[in-house]
């Protein structure tokens, strides 16, 4: 539906990055003036990959890597990896295209986009996985806060796709303020093409 706009925004960002070389670290990428929604998406993607690696370590190791103190060190490791992990030009191109498409769709159809994004591989997720995935979106922070509070209060072991759809619909009904989605698209397009 908005393919031309998405392509324009992606190309705009890629032109800024192409001058930086064929390999970048996340730290170097942060120094380039691209929209924070794109940076947040890429950062969350790296964090999620590290989280998956940690899950493998938790399942296959003879040692217990759970606990808040150990989690703190894994967050520190993630920061160090972001400083040094070299990302190729092709990976950057893919990540930026994914980030722009995700954010554009998320602004225009937040509930459908986040449900599809969260449950693309499974029909239920743990609260930990859900929290990691909820770090991808830059917009609608209130959704992340409400969902995190809900999962914490209910002390859920898993969250099902149907339950999330129900919650998001309930949140949407309670937070409708009459703004049209096209208004948000125009605002998103404007801010992504302006230098920060």
Verbal overview:
This protein has 196 residues and is mainly alpha-helical. It has one domain (3-193). It has ten helices and four strands; from the N terminus they run H-E-H-H-H-E-H-H-E-H-H-E-H-H. Strands 1-2 form a two-stranded antiparallel sheet. A two-stranded antiparallel ribbon has the order 3-4. Helix 1 packs antiparallel against helix 5 (89-108), helix 3 crosses helix 5 and helix 5 crosses helix 6 (110-118). The longest helix is centred in the N-terminal third of the chain and has 25 residues, at 36-60. It is flat and about 50 Å long.
pLDDT average, as an integer?
82
Classify the helix fraction into a percent range: over 70%
Instruction: State the low-pLDDT regions, or none.
Output: none
Strand order of the largest sheet: 1-2
Identify the quaternary structure here: single chain
Number of domains: 1
Strand content: under 5%
What is the CA-CA span between the terminal residues? 27 Å
Q: SSE order, as H and E?
A: HEHHHEHHEHHEHH
Structural class: mainly alpha
Largest β-sheet summary: 2 strands, antiparallel
Gyration radius, to the nearest Å? 18 Å
Report the total helices: 10
In total, how many beta strands? Answer: 4
